[in-house]
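Q: Sequence in, structure out?
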Amino acid sequence: EGSAAAVDSIGRRMAAVDEAVRPAQARTWSAYRAHDNVARSLRAVEAVVRHLDAVREAESVILESASKGVTAYLDAVDNLKSAEDFFTSKRIGKAGDDALKRVDELLRKAAAELENEFSRVLSECSKPVELEQLLKCLPSRSSAKDSAESQPNPGAVLSLPTLIDPRYVPRLSKLAQKSVQLGCHKQFVKIYRDTRSSTLELTLKQLGVEYVTAEEVQTAQAESRDAKITHWIRCLQIAVKLLFPSERALCDQIFEGKHAWKDHCFAAATSKSLLNLLSFGQAISKSKTSPDKVFLLLDMFDRTLELQSEVEAVFAGDECAENRKSASTLVKCLAQAAKKTLIDFKDSIVKESPKNTSTDGDVHPLTSYVGNYIKYLMDYQSSLKLIFQESSNGDGTKSGLVSEISGLIHAVETNLDVKAKQYKDHALGILFLMNNINYIVRSIRSSEAKDLVGDDWIQRRRRTVQQHATQYKRVAWGKVLDCLSAQGLTSSVGSATEGIAGSVGSIGSHSSTTSTSVIKARFKSFNKQFEEVCQTQMNWAIPDKELRDNLILAVAEVLLPAYRSFLKRFGPLVENSHHASKYMKYTPEALEQTLGNLFAKKLPQ
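A: Exactly. Output:
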């Protein structure tokens, strides 16, 4: 019992001690908390003071021009943004609100100043690229003049021209990046677009590229227009290979990391210049058509098509979709214009006046023009196949370019048939057809068109030429050969032979006289017909020497045997008569020599 009482007594004493100490502990804890609150308040005040000091320091910089020190200015902007974040996140009261208001004012001023600085630096650095600088970017040639007159080598490695002094690019990039923090990037994009767009326009203007209309192109002289097309092709290549890639590279450097902005800025900065450049091609494609214009259109089509992959590459991205569309639209317009020009030409051939014929049966200017036209078209065979989408139909017939070439030739042949009928001398009409079809065959055979139309087509036309030659012999020399016919002479010749043999009697003598006079008349008729034909046909033309020689030979092979036979059979009746040489004017050799003078007009020298 005694131990238990002692323990109980100790517990009561300890409880009394705790009760006595508790107030003191409470006071100590309160003092500790008060000290901690004071410390935290001091730290908060220090942070406020620090940010207020930063605002004051930044203010002195912001109120100055950014051009005095861009780095310090950008640092001041960073400090203001930090203060803005601080005062926005803390509830400090009126002092904090006032500070935040001042920070916002300073940031707005900073944004305006940075815009001005960005515009100033970009404008001062953006100068039109001189022609000499562009020429230096092209592969080296023998002289600057050669470079100016020549087109860039498609396979050569080109160095891009410097659009802005590289020393200023980092500054512009920093300014552009800061615009994002300040929320004024749209203004920066507009400044960049306007400045670079006008500079690029001036560069192209120095090269002679401006917006043109179809009416302006139409009024230009042909020589001037052709020269402008050649120049335009060079400018197009320079723009696509040098200027636009340089603009893309500059845009990528200044708006680094901002892909959507880069594409937008580049598309906006180049769109007007691209349209100005393409406007000439559009104007040419819409201007009044003429047959020769197709070669200009095909030249332009070839060059724009060659550059299409580079256009697609430099104008990649959704933002540049309209630029790509503008370029591809021009390619399509040039193709359609070339196609329409050929179709219109074919129609005009058919409608060409049938009265416009040559007086000597020579190759008609239309025939030679179309022949050469087709030959030159073959230089653009690959492009024309693309334009006409050449394909083979299920029935084995060909369409596309083959059809167009065949159509041109058929149109000429149709027109020639009509013209041939205008000749009063049927033989000359036939000679005209023979000359012209022969010219077409030779033109096609000497060009790549022969592979398109095929051997069968050529052989059919050669047979047509031969048929015309045969018909010519029959029509032109039929009356001459009729004079050498024995028809109607046989009975008279029998009586004449008896008279020559010494038959007596008035009937026999009369018969002999009559027979001789008939033979003389026939010789005389032959001489007249032969001389008329030769005299007339000496002024006719067969410009193809091989065809001429073959035709004369063919006539001789018919005429000379007939003449020799007639001379041998009926010559004895005349040769002993008075003035026999008046009737038997020609020996076979003399005939052959005279035939050699046929178609002497326009003989190749």
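The chain has 24 helices and no strands.
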